[in-house]
Design brief:
mainly alpha; about 130 residues; elongated; 8 helices
């Protein structure tokens, strides 16, 4: 298992943000979740494109503001989609990180999904190019 953990930490890259004076959740967010979200960004974009193709192909015709709302609703309200996205992040936790995560999964899930929503929304222009 140590080889897997070492590989995962090296694959993710450096910590994002200042973690010196952070609470436990913020430290976990910056040290673990942000690098994973950055690493998985292209996958998240393709997964969202596939979601749109499956459920709401007219998404590309929406104005930007409606696209932003759609992104937020898709991640927050579609439980299967949300769980799929969550799994893409959790799969890149080390064993120790997973054990830390399960101690406070509710708050960390909320942080994770909020960061993912903001990441998708900040790249909405990439979805406009699809039209």
């Amino acid at each position: 298992m140590e080889a897997r953990d070492t590989f995962i930490v090296a694959l993710r890259g450096n910590t994002e943000g200042n973690v010196q004076h952070a609470c436990a959740e913020e430290r976990f967010q910056n040290e673990v979740m942000r690098p994973i979200l950055k690493l998985q960004n292209d996958l998240f974009l393709d997964v969202f494109r596939n979601y749109v193709a499956k459920y709401k192909n007219d998404f590309y015709a929406y104005p930007t503001e409606k696209k932003m709302q759609y992104i937020e609703n898709a991640v927050q309200k579609d439980i299967k989609f949300r769980n799929s996205l969550k799994g893409m992040v959790i799969a890149l936790f080390t064993i120790a990180e997973y054990n830390e995560y399960i101690q406070n999964s509710s708050k960390l899930n909320k942080r994770m999904m909020n960061m993912l929503i903001e990441r998708l929304k900040s790249q909405v222009i990439l979805f406009e190019l699809q039209a």
